[in-house]
Amino acid sequence: xxxxxxxxxxxxxxxxxxxxxxxxxxxxxxxxxxxxxxxxxxxxxxxxxxxxxxxxxxxxxxxxxxxxxxxxxxxxxxxxxx
Length: 82
Hints:
- The chain contains 2 helices and 3 strands; from the N terminus they run ββαβα.
- By secondary structure, it is an alpha+beta fold.
- Strands 2-1-3 form a 3-stranded antiparallel β-sheet.
């Protein structure tokens, strides 16, 4: 069982480089096997049948902490393009 409630992560499709910022809040979900839930992301992954790399950004106790970290990550990606 995980110590924290929320996990923020980035998933990357290795065939195309498309990146997906996502979170999970389920105690029993492994962030590395979790595929994501976005319609566009899941459609893209099934179309390209690609290897996916997961990078965990952080684990958080509260939804507010997760929200703030997600906003910072989003802004960083907009500014840096990475």
